[in-house]
Amino acid sequence: MESSAIREYARQLDAWAGSANAKMLRAAELESKRSAVGAKLSKLLRDYAVELDKWAASANAKMKAAAQAQDKALAAGSKQSQLIREYAESLNAWALAAHVKMKKAAGR
Fold first, then answer.
1. d(Cα 52, Cα 15) in Å, to the nearest integer?
2. What is the pLDDT of residues 55-98, one digit of tens each?
3. Which candidate, 57, 61, 36, places its Cα nearest to that of 49?
4. Burial (CB count <10 Å: 0-12, 13-18, 19+), residue 36
């Protein structure tokens, strides 16, 4: 090989090596950015999962409290209904007794 051909070949190899080096540096830079974005995304997803867990726990607690309040209201309503029933029976008995007394008084 002639020395000019060797120099040209060396120059082409040097250019190719420089291009390959630049491409490798760019790939490493992109990988680094991808890793950074991936890490940020992972952190965001973890934070989101934590917030969802908090929200779910809060919603669950609120639903339990609402169910307990409803149970208490039903129990109170049941007790109130029982009291109203007893009062109505008492009024009915009193009215019946008054009716009987009025009949007796009218029959005298």
1. 54
2. 888 888 888 888 888 888 888 878 888 888 888 888 888 888 88
3. 57
4. exposed
Buried b (16+ CB within 10 A) or exposed e, 6-30: eeeeeeeeeeeeeeeeeeeeeeeee
| Sign of the CA dihedral running 8, 9, 14, 15 | positive
Position 108: which residue type?
R
Residue 2 — φ and ψ, nearest 5°? -80, 160
Query: Could you tell me which residues come within 8 angstroms of residue 9 by beta carbon, excluding any fewer than 6 positions away?
Result: 1
How far CA 108 is from CA of 27, 31, 97, 100, in Å, comes to 118, 112, 17, 12
pLDDT band at residue 29 using 50, 70 and 90 as cut-offs: very high
